[in-house]
Design brief:
Blueprint: E1 18-22, E2 25-35, E3 38-44, E4 50-57, E5 61-68, E6 81-85, E7 93-98, E8 113-121
Antiparallel strand pairs: 1-2, 2-5, 3-4, 5-8, 6-7, 7-8
Length: 132
Amino acid sequence: MAAPTIVLDGSAPYGTGSPISISGVTYILENINIDRGNSEANSRDGSGRPNRARYTADVPTMTADLQLATSSTAYPAFGATFTYTADNAAYGSETWIVLPQNFVATNGEGDIRIAPLRAKKAINPTGVTTVA
């Protein structure tokens, strides 16, 4: 008898990191990076030294690895939305919009299919509309 090439230990088709649902399809987020950057404006005194500043929060962006459950699981479309809670105390549940991304996925035999995800936080989550 030949040695098996793939062994599944358990029934989950993929990992159990941070499950999210996008357009009714469940995915797992891994290696999540949320950038909550800011812009800064400085005022200077007569000697050129900063004497005051204003900081404004930018719209957060997210990059992550997205696990696809099976070889037929579709990558989420541009404009699709999902909710994710990174820090419940500080930010709570946030709505994110999927951005265009070069699709590069692992597809080797036995691989867990992973593709990159790029998203931007929705400024007005109840007003997100996809226009054809």
